[in-house]
Protein: GMP reductase
Organism: Variovorax soli
Amino acid sequence: MQIFDYDNILLLPRKCVVESRAECDASVTLGGRSFRIPTVPANMKTVVDETICTWLAQNGYFYVMHRFDLDNVQFVKDMHAKGVFASISLGVKKPDYETVDRLVAEGLAPEYITIDIAHGHADTVKNMIACLKKKLPKAFVIAGNVGTPEAVIDLENWGADATKVGIGPGKVCITKLKTGFGTGGWQLSALKWCGRVATKPIIADGGIRDHGDIAKSIRFGASMVMIGSLFAGHEESPGRTVEVDGALFKEYYGSASDFNKGEYKHVEGKRILEPIKGKLADTLVEMEQDIQSSISYAGGRTLMDIRKVNYVTLGGDNAGEHLLM
Ligand SMILES: NC(=O)C1=CN([C@@H]2O[C@H](COP(=O)(O)OP(=O)(O)OC[C@H]3O[C@@H](n4cnc5c(N)ncnc54)[C@H](OP(=O)(O)O)[C@@H]3O)[C@@H](O)[C@H]2O)C=CC1
Ligand SMILES: Nc1nc2c(ncn2[C@@H]2O[C@H](COP(=O)(O)O)[C@@H](O)[C@H]2O)c(=O)[nH]1
């Protein structure tokens, strides 16, 4: 298997078929809804809050609310009261099963549920998927995180409607250092490997450092791309604002960090400061324009045309051109 990551792949252009990048459609469909772009802010406490989730849903973007220190039932009520879809995260512990029972008892059906644990190739996830499919059958269930084709096949067979791929490539991840495991450093080829067996959408999660990495993720099999650090440092971001030598930063910490957990136990995440980079809405517009440009370089008109391009690997033993046959 060929190993590569975002910074040692470049996609090869094909003849342009549009007169303007505005003709390129960056939208994607997931769970029966169409979203303006194939990116979703990470379900982390320093990345999203209820205000941001509401704004995203009202403006045509996908969102996944985090699952820490909040009442998921109240969140679903709030989102439905505002007339937008509800997209929540769950773990696999007793309180998560109690949340499902409370949702059912109150007649609340979130449109999207993301089962979000560090090691998602697990019987605990199988059991939670079974529970959701029985008790909340209309919910679109995303399950993860995983990093191998075997795991994608299992999650799909267990009933997941989409899988989330990425173990440790995130900017605040220390999984590979603490455990020796993961897709950190080769996330893009792990995605390619998983994409070959997937029959349902894949959400690529972690490791995106530049907007061009979104097109690369789509090329190698993602339908949606989850992003933490690039979204964390905005004026509206929920992380604490910190001033260092007159410059403003937002704190961004891992969900498995002691900052999120409140204790130092099984820590696999750290805290960093992200320079504040303006308004989230402006970044999303720029992202859409960049994806439209990617589609035009791919010689296409729609997002999935990016899947048709060849690519080159830069440097290392595997360097070369890779043609689609
Ligand atoms: N994408 C990534 O690379 C990673 C993401 N995270 C994020 O951090 C958050 C917290 O994750 P997590 O600790 O799983 O959530 P939880 O603390 O809710 O744990 C979920 C369950 O899985 C068990 N568990 C966790 N890790 C493992 C493991 N390696 N092997 C076996 N069982 C395990 C836990 O038990 P117990 O604690 O008793 O072991 C618990 O029962 C999530 O949002 C997750 O997405 C965390 C690490 C990596
Ligand atoms: N190993 C860990 N991974 C984590 C933790 N908290 C979140 N995450 C993952 O990172 C991505 C975001 O990555 P980024 O490169 O875009 O910043 C997020 O969606 C999670 O999957 C953690 O504590 N440890």
Notes: The two ends are 17 Å apart (CA to CA). Residues 280-297 form the longest helix (18 residues).
